[in-house]
Amino acid sequence: MKISDIFSFAFGAIRLRKLRAGLTTLGVVIGIAAIVALLSITQGLQTTISDQLQSGFATDTLIVSTQRGFGMSPGAIVAAESDFELLVNYTQIIDEIEDVDMSVAVIRKLGYIKSGEREFMLAIVGVDFAKYADVYSRTFVAEDGDISLSPENETVVVGKRVSDPWENGTAFTNVDNIVEITWTNASTLPPKNETYSGQVAAVLKEIGGFGFGGPSDTNIYIPITRAQSFFGTDECDTIIVQLENDDSATIESVSEAIEEAFGGQVNVISSTAVLDTVSTIFSTVELFLTGIAAISLLVAGIGIMNIMIVSLMERTREIGILKALGMKNRTVLSIFLSEAVIVGLMGAAVGVASGWVLANVVARVFTGGGFMSAGNQAAINAGMTITPVLTPTVILGAFAFGLLISVIFALYPAWRASRLRPVDALRYE
Amino acid sequence: MKKLMRMATPIVETVKLRKTYMLGKVPVEALQGVNLKVQRGDFLAILGPSGSGKSTLLNMIGALDKPTSGKVFIEGVDASTLSDNALADLRQEIGFVFQFFNLIPRLTARGNVELTMTIPGLGRDRRRKRAEELLETVGLSDRMNHKPAELSGGERQRVAIARALANNPKFLLMDEPTGNIDSKTAKEIVELVKKLNRDKGVTIIVVTHDQQIALQTRRTVQMIDGLIVEEKVN
Question: What is this model's ipTM?
Answer without folding.
Answer: 0.91
